[in-house]
TrEMBL record:
CDD domains: DEXHc_RecQ
Keywords noted in UniProt: ATP-binding, Helicase, Hydrolase, Nucleotide-binding
Protein name: ATP-dependent DNA helicase RecQ
Domain Helicase ATP-binding: 24-191
Organism: Solibacillus isronensis B3W22
Gene3D superfamilies, A to Z: P-loop containing nucleotide triphosphate hydrolases
UniProt KW Cell division keyword: no
Amino acid sequence: MKLQSALKQYFGYDAFRPGQEEIIRNIMDGKDVVAILPTGMGKSLCYQLPGYLFEKPVLIVSPLLSLMQDQVDQLKQMGEKRVVALNSFLTVDQKRYALHFLGEYRFIFASPEMLLQPQVKARIQEMELSLIVADEAHCISQWGFDFRPDYLRIGEILSETNRPPILALSATATDTVLADIQSYLKMKSPFHYVHAVNRENIHLVKKLFSEREEKIEWIIEHVKNTAGPGIIYTQSRSKAEAISLQLLQQNISAAAYHAGKEAQDRQFIQQQFLAGHLEWIVATNAFGMGVHKENVRQVIHETMPATLSNYMQEIGRAGRDGKKAVAFLLYCEGDEQFAKFIASEDLPKNIHVDRFTEVMATGGQPQSLLANGEMSEVVFRVLSYWLARESAEEVKSRMMNLQIKKYEEVQLVLKLIKHSDCMRKQVVQYFGQQLTKQQEYCCSNCGIEISELVEEREISKTMIKMTNWQHRLKKILLINS
C-alpha cells in the first residue's frame, strides 16, 4: 500500500506534514531513525502509521505516565482497541493479563522502569516487534534536561542482531544530545530528520525587574488584562500555589500543577485546562510534556529556566494552532543562582557516593539510604546505575563534570536575557541552526509591540461563577488542612 493511501485510510489526512513521510519511509525500509520535530508537528503519526502497516507490535517507551496515558487515550478515541500501557497504574492481575496477551496488541506503551522489570523484560525479548520507539528521547541523554538512569538502560533490552528498527523522537536536541541518543540506543547509522527549531508564530519577550515581588505583581496585572489560555512556569511548588491563589482572587480561573500533587489531581487539572475550564496553569516543569492543547496563547517564565532546551520545550507549548503566541521571560538579578541550584539539586554529591560505597562494602543494602532519607530517589537511581559501571572516583568526577555542564547551560540562558543580540537568533544557534530571515515582531531585542500580539481578556459570567466556586473550595481546603 502506498503511504499516501494509507495516510488517508487510517487517519483521514490528504497530505503529510513536513518530515513525516521521509521518517516513515526510512522506518519501512528497516532503518533506525532519529527524528527531531517541534511540538505539534505530528511525531506520534511517525510510529502510528507504521503500526498499521506492520503485522507485528510496536513498542513505545515513554518517560511520563501522563504522556503515556494521553497517547493511549488518543488511540482509543480513534477506535484502536489493540493498545496497552505497561505502567505502575496496573494492578497485579491487569499486569499478568497484559503480559500474557502482549503479542496480540498493536501498540505497547511502557515506562523505562517497567520495561526493565525482569518479567516484562523477558517477555519483550521473546517477542517479535516491528518497531521500537523512544519517545521524548532527549531524556536518554546524560546531558539532557531530565536525567533518567533507567532510560540509559533501554539499550540493554535490545538485541545486537535481528532487532527491529528504532525510532528516537524528540522536539529539541543539541548535537551532544543526538550523539548520546545514538550511543545509548545502539543505533546503526540512523537516518536523521531535524526540523527547523524556529517557531515564527511564537514571539519572544524578556522583562527585567529590580525586585522579585515586582515580577509577581506584573504577572497578576498582565494576566488580569490579557487573553489566555496560558501557562506560567515557576521553579518551586510553593510559588506555583501562591501565584495560582492570587489569580483566583482576581476572578481568573487558574490552578497550580506540580509533582507534589497526587497523580489523579494532576490528571484532573490537566483535563480541565484542555477542556477550556481553566484559563491558566501555574506549574513547575512537571507540566507540559504530552499536553496537546492547540490554542495556548501565552507562556510566562516567572523565573529563568535552567537550560535553553527547557526554554524551547516549554515555550513550544504555545501557538500549536499556528496563530500568534507570546513567550515572556522574566528576570531579576540573582535568578541565575536559584537556576543553578535547581539544575544541580538532584545530582549526587561526594558524600552520597562515599555513603553508597561504604554500605555496599560492608554488605549492607544501599536501599536503606533511600529509606532513611540520606538521599533522594533520583540520587539513589543515578548512583545505582553509575556505581555498577565505574569506580567511586570516576563517578565523583562524572558528577562534577555534569554539574559544570549544567552551570554552563544556566549561563547561556543568562546570556539570552542580558545580551542585546536577537533572542531568536541566539536560541536557534544553540541548536546548531541559522535563521533564514528576519521576521516582524521577532523579540524584545529586535523590536516588539505586545498590543499587536496579545488580545484583551474578556470575562464571561460563567467563568467568574466557576472561578468563585473554585476559590471558595480552595479556601475551605486550606483552612481544614
